[in-house]
Amino acid sequence: MPYAADMNPGLYIHVPFCARICPYCDFAVTTGAEAKRRAYLRSLDAEIEQAAAAHGDWLAFETIYFGGGTPSVLPPAQLSDILDAVRRNFSVSEDLWLTLEANPEDVTDEVAGAWRHLGFRSLSLGVQALDDERLDFLGRTHVTETARDAVRAARSVDFDLVSIDLMFGATGQTQRSWSRELEAAIELQPDHISLYQLTYHEDTPFWKWLQSGRRAELPEPQQADLYLQAVEQLSGAGFDAYEVSNFSRGRKAESRHNRKYWEHAPYLGLGPSAHSFDGDRRRWWNHRNLPQWEAALERGESPLAGAETLDTDELVTEAVMFGMRTRKGLDLAEVEARLGVDLEALNEVRFNEWRNRGLVKGHRVLRPTPSGMAIADRLAAEILTG
Ligand code: SF4
Known about the structure:
Low-confidence stretches: none
Bound molecules: iron/sulfur cluster
CATH class of the largest domain: Alpha Beta
Oligomer: single chain
Number of strands: 15
Mean pLDDT: 95
Strand content: 15-25%
Number of helices: 16
Radius of gyration: 21 Å
Structural class: alpha/beta
Helix content: 40-55%
Largest sheet: 9 strands, mixed
């Protein structure tokens, strides 16, 4: 099997349960009592065995990422069972980077210690906001102090990496209030911050409230200002924007798992809605809906909902989109060697103009500067790929 570059694969495990569904969320999630969780774990076990029969020859997993949903709703003993099943069926790197997404209200000193004991090195906290009014607006169940306590608990048990998610773009959010939140985030001293723009996804309660006029969307220019303000404030505090939405304190704090997605490395996704990629051209994905995913596995069938083989043009387009969003940049030489497309020749005038305007740097690798990264998606869309 061909692998992109020399990267070992990553494993993503989707845990679809949340204590309560946030009104803006459009992920594959559900609330779940213990019986529902046990049924999910049985199906996940079956999927691990099926996937091992199909992909057991993959190189050792270098990263395992428990996302969701809220994986922290599973007790440590259940997380441990999943990890045992993965280790029984796949090869796992000795230097495994294990990440858990957690909601602040699930993090206590005791449970954080148990996660560390299981080998989790990175904790990604769904903080979302550091302002009680904003948390209330988002329909979250925790308050700012809960988020602070969660970071303290993670620090007390020495996670290698503590990351927090922040959301911007809520109605009424001003530069001043956002600045206070960013300051509060910096004071917490996480190693990593991910920024998300609030999106009104169709069929969510937020979407319905938008349609009925109960909510108003923040105008696009104001959202762009909030983003640029975050870049400036976080950079000033020592956080590098190594990807449009991701900021780290130093290289060591960059997400090893997300890199798999951005660099066309192989990754396997298990659980409802999870996507996989073979590191070459093949991508496949599971049923999004928990009962459908479970029913297929209970019948001993594959839980796949679809698959596609990417053609060269699609792969180049993805490489451009991913590359232009990262500080590492778009590796023109690698794209030419791997996919046979000379992007420099196709875009010489455009690239030179961007270099002159200070939007990008470099020749073999096209690296967006901070001002280029702020409009990365727009630049990527202008690049001719064939
Ligand atoms: S906790 Fe996260 S995954 Fe769960 S409903 Fe809220 S936003 Fe969605």
